[in-house]
Write a structure and sequence with these properties.
With 122 residues, the protein is α/β, with parallel strands linked by helices. It has 5 helices and 7 strands. Helices cover 34% and strands 24% of the residues. The protein starts with 10 loop residues before the first strand and ends with a helix.
């Protein structure tokens, strides 16, 4: 599994319509020192990415106003250096997500153990 470093200047954006998951993920990642924000819809995500300049984006696929897969290339066009993690219960989308430019695919329900391993110092 690829590793990502989270430190005090790391900015993370979570785009998922499950607010409870966003809150839990934000709390978990914030403990590692990152600044974390979340959106519940895709509507404002491109503007938010342009202003927040996140290092890491967690992107759900099924959102109330669109499909996350359709936004991977648009997000990467803003900044190719963003580490984009597609999160979805639909594991059959993994190959398409990675082909579209996602750096990693994580199956829902999210494993906080996997997030910890992903962000642990090497």
């Amino acid at each position: 599994m690829k590793k990502i470093l989270i430190q005090n200047d790391t900015r993370v954006l979570i785009i998922d319509d499950e607010e409870e998951l966003c809150i839990l993920l934000k709390a978990f990642i914030s403990k590692k020192g990152a600044k974390v924000e979340y959106l519940l819809k895709l509507k404002d995500c491109l503007d938010k990415i342009s202003t927040l300049k996140p290092n890491i984006v967690f992107l759900d696929n099924n959102l109330p106003d669109g499909i996350g897969l359709d936004f991977i290339e648009r997000i990467k066009a803003i900044d190719k250096g963003i580490f984009l993690i597609m999160i979805s219960a639909m594991t059959h989308l993994q190959e398409k997500a990675l082909t579209n430019g996602a750096d990693l695919f994580m199956e829902k329900p999210i494993s906080f153990r996997a997030i910890n391993e992903l962000t642990a110092a090497s």
